[in-house]
Amino acid sequence: MVGTENDAGSQPLLSDRRRSRDTMTTIIDGNAIADGIRADLTDCVDELVAAGTRPGLATILMSDDDASETYVSMKHRACKEMGIENIHDEIDPSEPAEVLFERIDDLNEDPSVHGILVQMPVPDHVEKRAVLERIDPLKDVDAFHPENVGRMVAGHARYKPCTPHGIQKILAAEGIETEGKDAVVVGRSDIVGKPMANLLVQYGEGGNATTTVCHSRTQDLPEKTRDADIVIAAAGVPEMIDGSMLSNGVVVIDVGVNRVEVSERRSEGSQTESDEADTEKGYELVGDVEFESAREKASAITPVPGGVGPLTIAMLTYNTVKAASLQAGVDVDLP
Ligand code: NDP
User: How far is residue 213 from each of residues 45, 118, 300, measured CA to CA in Å?
Assistant: First the structure.
């Protein structure tokens, strides 16, 4: 059941927050939450270094895609800021799959590398599943290897996938209880929707929710989302969820990152604070949620950008630090 209008519930809300116009909606600041986690993780890095191990993350890019390049460089920057060593390889997308597999094999053997990330998507001639299975499960900081997926589903995760884990951190930081709540996850991908739903139904903190997973074949999606206390939107469809699909007091987590042409939105009369920058790029980023109408209903909502995205990167560094700790046999106090 959902709460009263814009009622944030009895839980204290912890983050420094902005209030939307004349309501009590919390606009969740993902950057601030990620900064806090990164600061704690930097202490863990320092402890590991003092014990003789500097955490190392290897990234491999086998794509000419602009967005993939941007994501990889954001991950490098995050590592650098925290003192995590970063090894980066680029493989021409026209190369055979074997070149990628051999590189993964080398990194699996390299003791200075604790985490390996192959930026997706890989070219069509490379089987994605074979890539994920090639990575040593102990170095699988994306947590997509079947062994790590199995451990998570069984309730004893070694690593949790970065985006769903980051969403758990957001909910915890904002004091948003999941236990006994009705959660609706829109999307059933292996990287977001399915693991998110799985974490929400696990026993313990951040779990114990009654969880419904929706997808493109779901009939009457608005009926499902209107019944939810927490809606997590991860469909990749620009602004598909609007206020009319939500109940008062709902918590809205918008995972979607969609590029929308600026001219398209201008003609619809939509204006944002970053209009000038957007015009230069020719596109702007929007989520799966129509922010303005959704925030009129929500007790708390993540913006795009600045909501879930920063947590995804922070949790990659979390998994890298955890991987280094496990491989070095040095305990650290992870946040
Ligand atoms: P996928 O395309 O892999 O999955 C999308 C899911 O949404 C599918 O399960 C699909 O259903 C479902 N879906 C699509 N259209 C509808 C619809 N109209 N109604 C209901 N369900 C629908 O995407 P990802 O999970 O990889 O990513 C989702 C979004 O999140 C993207 O915008 C992506 O860019 C973003 N993202 C953001 C991250 C961040 O850090 N902020 C990290 C990862 C992703 P079906 O299975 O039936 O096809």
Answer: 37, 27, 21
Fold of 161-308: Rossmann fold (3.40.50)
Q: Which amino acid is at 102?
A: E
Please confirm, yes or no, whether 65 is among the known catalytic residues. no
Cβ of 56 below 6 Å from ligand 1: no
Convert 246-281 into a string of H (helix), E (strand) and C (coil).
CCCCCEEEECCCEEEEHHHHHHCCCCCCCHHHHHHH
Q: Which numbered atom of ligand 1 lies nearest the CA of 193?
A: 25
Cα(83) to centroid(ligand 1), Å: 32
CA atoms within 13 A on the CB side of 335: 25
Euclidean distance between CA atoms 275 and 176, whole angstroms: 32
Ligand 1 centroid vs 187 CA: distance in angstroms?
5
Q: Based on the residue annotation, tell me whether 142 is a catalytic residue of this protein.
A: yes
Tens digit of each residue's pLDDT, the chain (335 residues): 333 333 333 344 444 444 444 458 999 999 999 999 999 999 999 999 999 999 999 999 999 999 899 999 999 999 999 999 999 999 999 999 999 999 999 999 999 999 999 999 999 999 999 999 999 999 999 999 999 999 999 999 999 999 999 999 999 999 999 999 999 999 999 999 999 999 999 999 999 999 999 999 999 999 999 999 999 999 999 999 999 999 999 999 999 999 998 865 655 555 555 555 565 678 899 999 999 999 999 999 999 999 999 999 999 999 999 999 999 999 999 99
Going from N- to C-terminal start, the domains of the chain cover 161-308
pTM of the model: 0.91
Q: In angstroms, what is the span from residue 22 Cα to ligand 1's centroid?
A: 32
Is 169 designated active site? no
